Amino acid sequence: MTTISRTASSKLPTLFGEFELVHYQGESLEALALVYGEIGTEAVLCRVHSECMTGEVFGSLRCDCKAQLELAQKRIVAEGQGVIVYLRQEGRGIGLGNKIKAYALQDQGRDTIEANLELGFAADERAYDVAAAILRELKVASVRLLTNNPEKMSGLRDAGIEVVEQLSHWAEFSVFSEAYIETKRQYMGHILDHAGPGRSSSGSPNSGSMDSDNPISDSIDSDSQSPEQTEGKAS
Q1: What is the dihedral angle through the alpha carbons of 17, 234, 112, 125, rounded to the nearest 10 degrees?
Q2: What is the tens place of the pLDDT at every residue in 95-147?
Q3: Is 193 annotated in the active site?
Q4: Torsion of CA 133, 139, 141, 147, to 10 degrees
């Protein structure tokens, strides 16, 4: 079982509300938790999020990582309690340098999976044992998980955390990230289990209501509108 230690914590005021920021150290890694409100032990609203320096720091439009992180903060604040586990797993676990190499291959026409495979990696190198260890340290036994990724759910379950509910977590996208998101949906099994705004269950355009799992009215399903409708919004 993965061992981690809590080393520091402080208040973290954000644009969305005040979180408690907790730092964890393992044998050769570090990770963070953002805790909002008085979380319980069962069915805690949770996002397990992997670091994306290019998106979250530099504003890259190649992915929806920053939008997903901010959406998780909004949804947890709206819920009144919850936790974001932030893992240092840049580039789906291949590291920052290799991620940039993968970007270069994508510039030449590969998709995100093909680029990883060409560099000698699996499509997704991430692991979730550290996230499970952090949740156990926070006394969380089961979660309602904000994710589209079935591997994330199974990874947490394998590590001993019960996932009692999966809540779709599609965020805003741009014309630059459309292909990346579609690859995740079609070839990595990411789940779209509701019609969402602007898309019917058959995939045709629709003027439906906002995602019932998403209480934030200014957030959209990342697969719900055309690039022409969304270009510029993610900036």
Answers
A1: 0
A2: 999 999 999 999 999 988 899 899 999 988 889 999 999 999 999 999 999 99
A3: no
A4: -60
* Sheet with 5-13, edge to edge strand ranges: 5-13, 18-25, 30-36, 82-87, 44-50, 142-146, 162-167
SS3 state at 53: helix
Our count of domains for the chain comes to 1
Q: What is the pLDDT of residues 162-191, one digit of tens each?
A: 999 999 887 776 676 566 666 666 655 566
Q: Specify if 115 maps to a domain.
A: no
From the list 64, 111, 124, 221, the catalytic residue is 124
Catalytic residue of the set 111, 126, 213, 221: 126
Residue 46's domain spans which residues?
A: 5-89+126-230
The Cα 48–Cα 83 span in angstroms is 8
**CB neighbours of 5 closer than 8 A, spacing ≥ 6?**
24, 25, 26
Report the candidate in 132, 147, 135 with the shortest Cα–Cα distance to residue 40: 135
Specify if 20 maps to a domain: yes
Is 124 considered catalytic here?
yes
The domain spanning residue 136 has which CATH number?
Answer: 3.40.50.10990
In a domain, 103, yes or no: no
Report if residue 219 sits inside a domain: yes
What predicted TM-score, i.e. pTM, was given to this entire model? 0.76
